[in-house]
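tl;dr need the bound structure. longer version: we got a ligand (manganese (II) ion) that a collaborator sent over and nobodys looked at where it sits. i said id run it. heres the input, straight from their email, havent touched it
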Amino acid sequence: MGRLLWRDRQRLECRLIDFHPTGCYTNRVIIVLKIGSPEPEIQQVVEAVKKFGYEPKLIRGVERTIVACVGDERNHHTLESLIVLPQVEHVTPVQKKYKLVSRQYQPQSTIIDVAGCLIGGDTFHVVAGPCSVENREQTLETAKAVKSYGATLFRGGAFKPRTSPYDFQGLGRPALEMLKEARDLTGLPIVTEVMSPQDVDLVAGYADVLQIGARNAQNVPLLAVAAASGKPILLKRGISGLVDEWLLAAEYICVHGNNKVILCERGIRTFEHACRNTLDLSAVAVAKQETHLPVFVDPSHAAGRADMIIPLSRAAVAVGADGLLVEVHPDPATALSDGGQQLKPQQFAQLMAELRPLAQVMGRKLNAGHAPQ
Ligand code: PEP
Ligand code: MN
């Protein structure tokens, strides 16, 4: 498995240049000076801008002067620190920091081929399966059930990022073996989480899609090493992550040579406690508009309650998401993690039945599934 050292700046820069001979790394920054700044102070800003490798252009108004700066992001100098100069009123970058993930860079939507499932295309894909892989029977039974109701990918946690160290942490490698067996049995590609850079090779040996969880959404070394595996990556939004931070995490993956990123909104922490988190559908709409990447919704971790999964999933289809990630367990009452939010197979069947006409209205196909065996 190809390793890319995240610290290897020189190699990273070569990659950037390889990708972008067209110069999409031009950075534009506006520096507004305080009213009446004397000429020597204006020149001090001009010199500082030049020192950072930017080209300054002075725009002189009646009362104040603005310095418009153009430079190359890859020199890693930020002009934002010039705010400390007393004559500077504010420093405003003109464009967004993310580039490779943006629709400006690539107008057409990215379609990711996961073992024949075209994610981000006409089909609305549903990833379903238990929060944790607990044992072989639970895993295989759930995989067969979700497939029969139309899920196109299977999920299950082998490495669990639990809030408490006393909670079930996942079975690790044996769980990966069970997931493989589930794939062999059903043909469903596997989505499973990887929590640390050291485990990427192991998990990538089993998974069709590597999941990077909300708690690791800004773990830069993990993003880089996972990217280097070449596997598609389902990237959750951080628990309190801004949309910009989420998209920049995706940008890290792309910068490391892997543009197979599926964004996944899983609810954010707000003041509201009626549900475990607050599903931010605006973020889905923004991500769809701003980026060319497929965007999924995870109503299970957003709601934390099984009774909210169907209504939130309907909303996800309507807002234009490309798919769902839903937790399903044969007996949620005995689940080792997230029991309260997991659907029983029959409830999952109902979810799929309700989504089918909605998907059609939105111009998407939803896999029909087949009668349970
Ligand atoms: C999960 O999908 O199993 C999970 C732990 O989700 P999140 O990272 O969104 O909490
Ligand atoms: Mn879970």
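gonna send this back to them w/ a short note. DSSP finds eleven helices and 14 strands in the chain.
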